[in-house]
């Protein structure tokens, strides 16, 4: 049974080893000529003005959290879609409850203004 996974394991090991080898060769043989300009952060070809750290508005974090929430939803939906016929009515009820909880959370975020950009 495990022999079926052998080609995948070999592929993962070889690609990981090759990635590390390329990084190592670049570190060993790559040119190193540090200058002041190379140490500056690059932004659109312009020299940065002011400090590089700023406070991010909270709306970006809210959008990121909502994205993660619905991304995790997809993670749970895909395996369920593969085996839902074997789960029968129990699986459908469980996923219905899961979707209802997500919809309630989405409506709550909507009513609280988490989706408003201004």
Oligomeric state of shown chains = single chain
Total DSSP helices: 3
Task: Quote the distance from N terminus to C terminus.
Answer: 56 Å
Q: Provide the gyration radius in Å.
A: 24 Å
Largest sheet: none
Helix content: over 70%
Molecular shape: flat
**Structural class by sheet pairing and helices:** mainly alpha
Q: Average pLDDT, to the nearest integer?
A: 85
Number of strands: 0
Order of helices and strands: HHH
What are the low-pLDDT stretches, counting only 5+ consecutive residues below 50? none
Strand content: under 5%
Q: How would you sum up this structure, described in words?
A:
By secondary structure, the protein is mainly alpha-helical. It has a domain at 57-118. Helices cover 70% and strands 0% of the residues. It is built from three helices and no strands. The chain has helices at residues 6-29, 36-39, 58-112. It is flat, with a radius of gyration of 24 Å. The mean pLDDT is 85.
